[in-house]
Amino acid sequence: MKTFRTIFLSQLFSLVATSYAYSIVEIIDDAGSTIVLSQPVERIISLAPSLTELVYAAGAGDKLVGVVEYSDYPPQAIDLPIVGRFDSLNLERILQLKPDLVVAWQSGNPRASVARLKQLGLTVYIAEPKKLESIPSHIEKLAVLAGTEATAADAINQFQTTYSTLLTEYGDKPLVKIFYQVWDAPLITSGGNELINDIISLCGGSNIFEELKLVAPKVSDEAVLARDPEVIIASGMDIERPEWLDDWKKWPNLGAVAKNNLFSIPPDLLQRHTPRALIGAQQMCANIESARSSL
């Protein structure tokens, strides 16, 4: 009798422990929905290039079975099946790939398409990275969903260490007025609610259009000239320096032109909420520091 009881209790404990281990995957996404999983996911589809990078940073890249166009980093992402563009999703293709988790971009993906995926029974985790310092928490949540927390820990620690180093080095420097140029025609910049603004602030810069709350607001040449930035930093379509950056030389009295403080940084390093944003931040901080010494 004693032996039977011991075996029974042992089996019961094992069953409870196993049940507990596979019932604690619970995350609240950025839309306020609670995602509850009986076990970590194994097949993931990402609906934004930045989210693809975050999945890899979370150590779950080998679980990706589909991505959207322009998911080009890390290089192995290029070979994954394409399920459309971030703004035009191929729902049929998504269903064919049988994901147990779809990672969607709240402000970038079509809301109707995302809602339809939920109606079709897919588990959808909605992410909306907004602040530079929030990137580690997004990596951590994705890692919990995928059961890859141990792998993600290194990426999280590295990001936090680099971020703290930059903040310590540049946080108390004299402010430098920065104009960040996304595009030339129309003239597009970064407002105060964007990743680029966070990076400018981290580097001890002051975004001359910080008060604008729209994403990628359009501005005029006259508005830039009136605010007389001491540094102009531009990104184009790729890693090459955009030719239109030199158009500012038409105004030799502009502070950034007079001091030759015209810089370019590849857009993927400044416009995606991923760990690579700190690579862009390191370049921007170095550019601003170089300009600061000339003022």
From TrEMBL:
CDD domains: BtuF. Keywords: Signal. Residues 43-295 form the Fe/B12 periplasmic-binding domain. It comes from the Bacteria. Transmembrane segments: none annotated. GO terms for biological process: cellular response to iron ion. The keyword tRNA processing does not apply. Residues 1-21 form the signal peptide. This is Cobalamin-binding protein.
